## 1
Amino acid sequence: MTAITLADQLLQHNLTPPQANHEDWCYYDVSRVLATPLTQAVAKPHREVEPNTLYFFNDTCVWGALDPAITVTKQAAPPIASTQNPFVQLKKDVTIQLECQQFNGDITLIYEADGYQSSDVTLTGTDSTVRVHRRFINTQKSLQNNQLACHLTPGTSVTIVDTNAQNKGAILDFMDVYVSQNAVFKAINTAVLCANARFQSRVYLNQETAQATLHGLSINGCGDQSFYNTHVHHNAPNTQSRQLFKSLNKNDSVFEYNGKVSVAPKAQQIDSYQLNQNIILDEYAAVHSRPQLFIEADDVQCSHGSTTGDIPSDALFYLNSRGLNPLVSRSLLLKAFIQDVLTFAGDDTAAIMDGLDHII
Amino acid sequence: MLFPDHDKTVETLVEKDYEFGFRSNIDSEKFPKGLNESIIRRISAKKNEPEFMLNFRLKAFAHWQKMAEPHWAAFDYPAIDYNDLHYYASPKSLANKPKSLDEIDPELKRTFDRLGIPLIEQKQLAGVAVDAVFDSVSVATTYKEKLKKHGVIFCSMSEAIIEYPDLIQQYLGSVVPFTDNFFACLNAAVFTDGSFVWIPKGVQCPMDLSTYFRINEENTGQFERTLIICEDQASVSYLEGCTAPKFDSNQLHAAVVELVALEGATIQYSTVQNWYPGDKKTGKGGIYNFVTKRGKCLGRQSKISWTQIETGSAITWKYPSCLLIGDESVGEFYSVALTNHHQRADTGTKMVHIGKNTRSTIISKGISAGSSHNTYRGLVKANKSAHGARNYTQCDSMLIGDTSVANTIPYITTTNKHTVIEHEASTSKVGEDQLFYLMSRGISLDDALATIVSGFCQDVFQKLPDEFALEANQLLSIQLEHSVG
Amino acid sequence: MLTINQLHATITETETPIIKGLDLTLEPGKIHAIMGPNGSGKSTLSKLIAGDEQYTVTSGDIQLNGQSILEWDATQRALMGIFLAFQYPIEIPGVPNDEFLRMAYNAKQKHQGLEPMDPLVFQDHLQNVCQQLSIPESFLERELNVGFSGGEKKRNELLQLAVLKPAVAILDETDSGLDIDALKHVATGIRSLRQPTNTFLLITHYQRLLTYVEPDYVHIMMDGRIVETGDKSLAMALDKSGYDGFVSAR
């Protein structure tokens, strides 16, 4: 019996995979993911789960002791309805409701795959300041397909810190974020030496003074592929968004930043900025940068920038001329280059810097 | 009256209309509506074309029938019935091509006079030679003899196909093959005329060349084709202008422009596009401007520079592009696109870096007013071979009023370490404070707006040949009148 | 010349009252100064006179030579001889300073039924004005206020004032942010532009400028009204006591 693949599973549910001419997927090799066999290994004995931590292994989810301000419930997955995002729509047995009520602290989500792992989590933050650490563990050539929806009620602040390093399999991640008045959403994703990672975020700034900051750092070793696909919707006046995505790319790697900012009609006084900067480290790597603006209100400040190239040779020369050898100089400049992406990465910064050393 | 020509006190004054919306009463010979092989054979026969040309057309037509109309741009338009168009319309008086400018039908001359394009050489703008295209055919080309003395060929495409078949066979379709896209393919099958320019080795063309396109007949598609070849170390500056009468129906304009620059050659191609944009209130009528323009920098150190001022048309899809093949070749794109009322413009460029140390610059200024949509869509691509490629892109959008839309959609792809690609974009509005500042110095509201917009476009206007810069400025002010207040 | 009568005005958007029954008369050939603490409505008053639609007159009147100006927009007021030197002059990219000046000058010429001035003649005229005000001619080629330092912007306002020769010149905090040399330049400029037929209104927070340009009248503005009018000694007294002291003395 041949193993069931993702393509088979989509077919079972009458879902059509994204087509190669779809502009959100045009550089992504969907066929590679579709052909992945979904055979799951025997369920791994669950590791001891830390407090305030949810652990996803393949299609299971367990959690450790929870702070009284956090509740987690499992609910039956809703029926498959639309085909707008076939991967998200793929049947997941349960959805996890994660609610924080007046909670100030950290939550950890660990996603680990051996074969096929999928999850559907809805996080609701009320009067809370939450920091969510997500760790992606995919050391076999597995497939991970996760969905996270975040609802930020007025005044809530949610920061998501994703770490994703040295993974061999494919990661498809979908995040939908709804931000209301005075709420602040921040996310930083790092993909360090990962074979295949695609992170998609849709952020809806639905009420006045909502704010979102999206950061991404991708360090692509030889043959690695990483894709960031973001879309920030300014649906209300006086909302603010910042996007900063950087990448370092070695031979035969592929990087894409496809970032959109939409400003709805009548959503005036918008302040939005996108910046994507990429460095190609070896001779040949493919970098696709697509910062896009769709603006339907006139009183806005929206701008974006994109640069791709090598380390500036004048800076390198300057450091060399001060007696630093080329290797040290390069490493110094690369660290400086990524510094501003990591402003709120906290404890994860060290791991990222290790990854950086690895490729230099 | 205290303020005789102050806009606010004369609000009843009718908005300035599309200036060139008149239709000339000229007897014309039209082929019946419809698109099929026999129409294509008739076009080719009408023009006494050699067989290779007919074959080119038929091959294109066969391919076109297998293609689907693109609908990828961000807006819809009513389906075009390609069988409900005339593919050939020509003033009867041109049945036998006039031997000299004196023999041209006076009504035709008057038409071009009204458009500011006198077909009498003495009256010409100093130093500009004109090829005037009326519906499907070229009416006249001025200064041909003078140019010939310098070895420059400037004539209608029909004439070139007969007189210079070798050049045509070598270059026609070499930059935009008929397989390229739906509209280019249609053009290859049915094009009726256009301009041909050939500048021989080492010649700096002694005057600016210009083609003026006029659509006069209703329900007629205009499919012209322009081919410009600059041999080694040669250079030319070429200007293109266009207008059409006001009709309630939409008219299709699907042109193809091909430029070839050999070693050290420079081609500057400037367009002031002022096709009828459709009715201001209802959006009815207007030109669908689906044009393919592309240049090949084939030779080392060659340079192609596109400058465009787009103010007309109901819908514009247009991406004048450069294939930078020769080492150290240079591509430039300077664009001002102004949309107002119900216009839709989707324009930008493609810069494909193939040769070593190639450079490109893109400066795009989009201004959207009224209920219009204005999109910049551009591709910058550096291939593996493009060592040392450098691109700088700047896209600025300006919104006037809160019902217009501005989009910026860049595609940037690099596959080579030794490249530097920079892209910047910003969106701004005309500041109330800027308007107030200028008004408080005695400048009227309309003039203040025109001044701010013109300042916003300054980087591009500077690239235009002088006589065009002035025209461009005036066009902008006319299009923008009463856009704020 | 300019008469303001029981003026009440609000911020258009929020309808917050700012000017609350203000009376003021500017006399030809005189220099008036308005002093007042932050938030007293000084800048609002200057913008109201110039016709900024961010503010709305709710009652009262402003008259220029007996004619109400309230129905006129900013352009019309400028054509009739009102000039405001902005506290924060606006940057307008891509518009050359000299061309802008010629546009404004010729708009006024046209309004007065006069021929527009020939570009070359105007250029000479501009150069003369620059010399008079010791403003470098390089100002003329630059884009309107773009990349100008604070001091340069203020001097550019003065250049416009000299070229347009208004009947009523209002200078809104022209002295703020200037070093002592720049201040002297501005003061010399104002003195040289003074005519028996025009009037100046200097709006300032400090007494500093007034030591270089002696005002004929000093008006104290507080909470949207002129609360006291006197001669230059009033400014000196105020400088000693401060606004708080002034209030408690009242």
## 2
Amino acid sequence: MHVVILVKQVPDSSQIRVHPQTGTIMRQGVPAILNPYDLFALEKALELKDVYGSFLTVLSMGPLQAEAALRKALSYGADEAILLSDRAFAGSDTLATSYALAAALRKIDSYRKIDIVFAGKQTIDGDTGQVGPGVARRLGLQLLTYVQEIKHIDYEKKKVLVHRKSEKGIQVVSSQLPCLMTILDGNSSIRYASLPNMIRAAKAPVKIWNRMDAGIEDISKIGLKGSPTVVGKVFAPQNTRGPAEMIEGDEPELLCSILIEKLFEKYPEVEKEVLQQVR
Amino acid sequence: KKVSLDPRLSEYRGIWVFIEQEEAKVHPVSWELLGKACVLAKFLGVDVGAVVFGGNQEVVDTISKDAIAYGADIVYQVVDPSLADYRSDPFTECLVQLVKKYKPEILLLGATSLSRDLASSVATFLETGLTADCTELTINLENRSLEATRPTFGGSLLCTILTLNYRPQMATVRPGVFPIPLPNTDRKGMIIREQLQFNEASFVTKVLGFIPDPYKASERLSQADVVIGGGRGLKQASHFSLLRELAMLLGGEVGGTRPVVQAGWLEAERQIGQTGKTIRPKVYIAVGISGAVQHRVGIEKAGTIVAINNDPNAPIFDYADIGIVGDFLEVIPAMIRVVKNKISL
Ligand SMILES: Cc1cc2nc3c(=O)[nH]c(=O)nc-3n(C[C@H](O)[C@H](O)[C@H](O)COP(=O)(O)OP(=O)(O)OC[C@H]3O[C@@H](n4cnc5c(N)ncnc54)[C@H](O)[C@@H]3O)c2cc1C
Ligand SMILES: Cc1cc2nc3c(=O)[nH]c(=O)nc-3n(C[C@H](O)[C@H](O)[C@H](O)COP(=O)(O)OP(=O)(O)OC[C@H]3O[C@@H](n4cnc5c(N)ncnc54)[C@H](O)[C@@H]3O)c2cc1C
């Protein structure tokens, strides 16, 4: 069984600060990490490897620095890593990204048939959750989004049974390989990297492909040109309330009755509901 | 100066909203979007279309009537057994065909798991732009384009994204961002029953069952007039019972920040913020919450924000309407007594 995991390198957004005066992002010194949601996908793939001895390929599109994210994935136990990197990809939106990734997957499939593609639920920078479905559509793979649990795989019959999250509950869905699943963040966190894998990852070659390696000839489909969305302005959100009007004093009960009076005065319907509910 | 649109693009007219339903119940975000679509349509001088898919004609008819009451001028219905449960393939095929036939210039969907799946699939087939998780939508009348604004970098910045040279312009919008309009059952609208031929055998993926989530905390949180939010300042899980008692007295619900969910003090469904829910209660009371931007983006739409924190310099006070400095272990029990007194008056 051959499983490909799509991973993206992202800035650690918990460490991003916005310049208080200019409202621009201060990226300097912000570490780049493997998208946390992709770790859940990687762990699911490693579980398949445990059971089926699957071959795991990790694929990423990004600048050359993204090699670090792929090496991280190798240290957890992925077998092969490919970085799709080319100036021509710069400025890609999700439509252009899924085009490029789909081309690379086609290439990978030509020498090692792909059974399952895993993607994360979303990234923590672009945060759209659109790339996984886009890739599946371009390749004609069965698309299973927000998969919570893979219940069963019958590799001989190419059948798969999953639980996927919907707004009102869980859908029990049967489908077929090859398919693309986007994996929900769950309770199973990523395993520790084993020492042999860490040593292997440090030395293992990460294949770097440019657009020609991925068989992309038409540059009108990638990068800025291939991106229908255009980023207009970027600005800091306005603070429309605050600073808060402080209710001051030493007697908590007094403070609270002032507060409750204020709230009930502004929202008589809330007061009404409170009084009615109890009667 | 008026920019003239490529004639290929100016064929596209009207604003569509995909009406999301599961088990015959419409997701409130669909009505929120119809309300917003009506405002945008006025600017553009076009009609609002609602798209309703389903497996049962009666259910679809009821939903279509509601859609008209909430602001749709035209409802495009497709009813087929293949559309009984949500599946990406038939729904995508259906929506792509409708868009190709009727050419709306804007297509809006909820940023829910169902509609995100559908929106990304449809945008890929139509090769058009899709802006995710928007919190504001406006029209630039110069070129009739949709300006879709979304938070980036966890909400510390906003960016406006345009889809200039492609149609339709697609966007998903988070639930709770726009208010639900008042339905008007006297409104008139047109219903178009679209006949599409489906070959069920071509759909490989089958829905075998559905396990409903009996626990609808997240729905109650969206609808509550009063929400009490708890943060790391609560120190331990058991202290949430104080918030629960207060919430019960006020007819409200309890929510919280991400750290308290991660610590297991509160169910994940009750997380408020960037990676949780957007809520719009009348009153939000933030208890032991510092006011990180990732939390604030989820409470921006509240009527009044009250902050209770023992640190007078906590950032939350800069973003709240009313503040009380104090230890929650004193303030919340006092508030419970005050409300109880009111009730027994
Ligand atoms: C602030 C900001 C806002 C943006 N808004 C939009 C928007 O509204 N619409 C739009 O079309 N584009 C948008 N973009 C561009 C978009 O982020 C990029 O196209 C990006 O390459 C992929 O999208 P994503 O980060 O949203 O990934 P998601 O779709 O959230 O990623 C889902 C999964 O797809 C896989 N994946 C995603 N990217 C890669 C990759 N480069 N290599 C390998 N696997 C990958 C991973 O498994 C990931 O978990 C935005 C970018 C930024 C920085
Ligand atoms: C990608 C990403 C996504 C995120 N998404 C979310 C999200 O969706 N929602 C979310 O909430 N966060 C989210 N976060 C986390 C966010 O950045 C903050 O870390 C978080 O909101 C802080 O939670 P807190 O206010 O509960 O805790 P803290 O920041 O630790 O604040 C605790 C507060 O309690 C006060 N306090 C302490 N003791 C008392 C007492 N006895 N009485 C009264 N007050 C007291 C303290 O003064 C302090 O202000 C996200 C972060 C990242 C990086």
